[in-house]
Write a structure and sequence with these properties.
With 80 residues, the protein is an alpha+beta fold. The protein has one domain. The protein is built from 1 helix and 5 strands; from the N terminus they run E-E-H-E-E-E. Strands 2-1-5-4-3 form a 5-stranded antiparallel beta sheet, covered by helices on one side. The radius of gyration is 13 Å and the shape is elongated.
């Protein structure tokens, strides 16, 4: 089944992508645009609705604690 990957900022969709890698790169680029050097990110995969998946972006700065970035990617099935 084909999917669309919807980038979210909080509860608001910001853009859609046809592949996961492009979506993740775009979200990380947007989120880290004004972050200091040494800021790290990672994706945490979670189950979504109807056998889909959700990826939550987490960040770690100078404090070295991982925290939610309130940005995510939601996998949405293409229905025809």
């Amino acid at each position: 089944m084909d999917h669309t990957y919807v980038a979210m900022s909080g509860e608001h969709p910001t853009s859609a992508y046809t592949d996961l890698n492009s979506a993740q790169k775009a979200v990380v680029d947007q989120h880290t645009q004004y972050m200091p050097d040494g800021y790290e990110t990672e994706w945490q995969e979670e189950p979504g609705f109807d056998d889909t998946r959700v990826w939550q972006l987490r960040g770690r700065g100078l404090g070295r604690r991982w925290s939610k970035a309130y940005r995510s990617i939601v996998e949405v099935p293409n229905r025809t």
